């Protein structure tokens, strides 16, 4: 009851499933290069702010962009790809590729110093880091990490 961080499973659902017919590889779809106005990533405007940037891509923001500067995804959420990577509720852990059982909305271990960070941000440029499956760990904030607030509406 109330507001909280999204779990990792919830973040994945709103980023890759929901109203999608098939799960996209990137926030804009399945193909490279990054299309015009796809989001706020490490573009040519970020030259000097980042070590690696996406050549021939320009979103006109060297760092964070105002929320809603780019189109929402099919589930109606802004900035799932680009702008700020997102801190989620789950404690970080590495899982085997083939987990022995499926768990509903797994939260990871009960304790730990690092949390899961999902999505891409204004510092993101590599193909693997732009993918919606990209996943990091963090124990403290950074200038390219934000969060998304969720609210429990009842039900299972």
Helicity level: under 10%
Overall pLDDT level: 90
* Count of alpha and pi helical runs: 2
User: In order across it, which strands form the biggest sheet?
Assistant: 4-3-2-5
% residues in beta strands: 15-25%
The rounded distance between the terminal residues' Cα atoms is 13 Å
Low-confidence stretches: none
The rough form would be described as: globular
Class inferred from helices and paired strands:
mainly beta
Helix and strand string, N-terminal first? EHEEHEEE
What profile does the largest beta sheet have?
4 strands, mixed
> What integer value in Å does the Rg equal?
16 Å
How many individual β-strands? 6
Brief account:
The chain contains 2 helices and 6 strands; from the N terminus they run E-H-E-E-H-E-E-E. The chain has 156 residues and is mainly β. The relative contact order is 0.25.
Structural notes for this entry:
With 156 residues, the protein is mostly beta strands. 8% of the residues lie in helices and 15% in strands. The protein contains two helices and six strands. It has helices spanning 8-16, 127-130; strands at 3-5, 85-91, 115-118, 135-138, 145-147, 149-151. The strands form two sheets. The chain has a four-stranded mixed beta sheet, with helices on one face. A two-stranded antiparallel ribbon has the order 1-6. The longest helix is centred in the first third of the chain and has 9 residues, at 8-16. The protein is globular, with a radius of gyration of 16 Å. The two termini are 13 Å apart.
């Amino acid at each position: 009851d109330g507001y909280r961080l999204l779990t990792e499973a919830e973040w994945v659902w709103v980023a890759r499933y929901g109203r999608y017919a098939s799960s996209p590889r990137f926030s804009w779809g399945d193909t490279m290069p990054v299309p015009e106005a796809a989001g706020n990533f490490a573009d040519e405007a970020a030259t000097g702010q980042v070590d690696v940037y996406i050549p021939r891509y320009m979103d006109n923001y060297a760092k964070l962009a105002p929320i809603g500067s780019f189109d929402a995804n099919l589930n109606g959420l802004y900035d799932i790809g680009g702008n700020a990577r997102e801190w989620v509720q789950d404690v970080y852990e590495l899982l085997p590729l083939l987990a022995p059982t499926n768990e509903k909305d797994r939260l990871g271990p009960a304790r730990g110093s690092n949390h899961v960070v999902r999505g891409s941000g204004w510092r993101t440029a590599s193909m693997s880091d732009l993918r919606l499956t990209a996943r990091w760990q963090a124990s403290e904030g950074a200038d390219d990490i934000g969060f998304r607030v969720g609210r429990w509406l009842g039900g299972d």
